[in-house]
Amino acid sequence: MILKTLFSQLLTRPVTNRFPVKYMPKSVTGLLKKVEEGEAKIHPPVPVPEKFRGKLIYDREKCIGCQLCIRVCPASVIKFKPEEKKIRIHVARCTFCSQCVDACPVGALSMSEEFLLADYDRFSGNLVVE
Ligand code: SF4
Ligand code: SF4
Hints:
Blueprint: H1 2-11, H2 28-36, E1 56-58, H3 68-72, E2 78-81, E3 86-90, H4 99-103, E4 109-111, E5 128-129
Antiparallel strand pairs: 1-4, 2-3, 3-5
The structure holds iron/sulfur cluster (2 copies).
């Protein structure tokens, strides 16, 4: 039984996607440099399923500053900017629950398919949406 499973596994393609590259290079930083210079390409991540909840998208123009999203956010991720009557979202602490999206009366918030959010700085432009 074990041998049968072993052989079937040997002949089956992996269901996971090899990411960021098919074959891991000796130096990851070297690879990233090559990607930056256009000499190498990152293997695309797996397609995300329908209704995937990734990084929040905020439409500033639509926002009316009602603060409903702030009230429903369980992680206190959204801050109000009173001078502009707009919001700031700290994605690093977001739990991707989508409650703010559901609560927004004007559809100013939505969830993207973006999930590659690793960063050294939680306050970097990549992780602050405003
Ligand atoms: S998705 Fe959830 S945790 Fe993230 S900002 Fe919206 S309400 Fe807060
Ligand atoms: S719920 Fe919508 S309109 Fe209200 S502050 Fe949040 S993003 Fe703006």
